TrEMBL record:
Ranges where the DUF306 domain occurs: 52-136, 148-251
Domain of life (superkingdom): Bacteria
Record-linked InterPro entries: DUF306_Meta_HslJ, HslJ-like_sf, Hsp_HslJ-like
Protein name as annotated: META domain-containing protein
Length: 261
């Protein structure tokens, strides 16, 4: 089992002093409330190769906040739009090491974002440029459409206990769920379970689940108890491409899942 401490930073995207309101000066309207993924990165007018299987991501929250990901950690920082310039002087986030190439890419992206690049939005495309680097991004849902809740097997990636604690169980068989045609089936990683479920576009209520009774110990038991405790009652859900987020009404406790197993 691995415990991952999440840094919960106050990340607000604002305009202050003599800085222009968000969206003015960059052209094409504000990117606030939207998420973007890189489709082309160049340095010195040559294509820059990113770490295999990664893209650069920017998330502009509805209520402010600029988050970014370069294929490893979730990062974020306070930011402002100063005309056509994106200003972010510092950032923080989770602190996993994902490999030499990925770690270097993350630092490179963070350094770029804090170098005060220019920004321009043209429809679904957002372009950032600074020094010899240009990053072209498109709306996330166009690059990576959301998978459907129904018919997809969702594997538990983490159990969320509070805003600062996510538990990962890498040494035991994974837990997973599949929702389809009013039923839910799955595994705790140790036992199988099934039940009925009827979901809306944003909520999914879990009733009593029928669970097999194989004896579980150690981390397998901890995973099972945690999963079953979180698959109860009315839950909210959201899907971001191949990731499913289940949360209790408090918006904190729940499960993070990824498609496949």
């Amino acid at each position: 089992m691995r415990l991952l401490g999440l840094l919960v930073a106050s990340i607000t995207l604002t305009a202050c002093g003599n800085e222009a309101p968000a969206g003015s000066g960059g052209g094409g309207g504000s990117p606030v409330g939207k998420s973007y993924l890189s489709v082309k990165v160049t340095e010195d007018r040559k294509d820059k190769q990113l770490a295999p299987g990664t893209r650069l991501r920017l998330d502009f929250g509805d209520k402010g906040g600029l988050g970014f990901n370069a294929g490893c950690n979730q990062m974020g920082g306070e930011a402002t739009f100063d005309g056509g310039t994106l200003v972010m002087d510092a950032y923080g986030g989770t602190e996993m090491s994902c490999g030499t190439v990925e770690d270097a890419q993350e630092k490179w992206f963070g350094d770029f974002l804090t170098s005060r690049p220019t920004w321009k939005r043209d429809g679904d495309v957002l372009t950032l440029a600074g020094g010899s680097t240009t990053i072209v991004l498109k709306l996330r849902q166009l690059v990576e459409p959301d998978l459907p809740l129904d018919g997809t097997t969702w594997t538990v990636e983490g159990m969320v206990s509070d805003r600062d604690r996510v538990e990962h169980f890498a040494t035991v068989p994974p837990a997973y769920i599949t929702v389809d045609d009013g039923r839910v089936i799955g595994s705790t990683g140790c036992n199988q379970f099934q039940g009925t479920v009827a979901h809306t576009a944003t909520t999914v209520p879990f009733g009593a689940l029928t669970v097999t009774d194989k004896a579980c110990t150690g981390d397998a038991l901890r995973l099972q108890d945690g999963v079953l405790a979180r698959l109860k009652g009315q839950l909210t859900y959201s899907i971001d491409h191949d990731r499913l987020r289940l949360r209790r009404p408090d918006g904190v406790v729940g499960l993070d899942l990824v498609a496949g197993k």
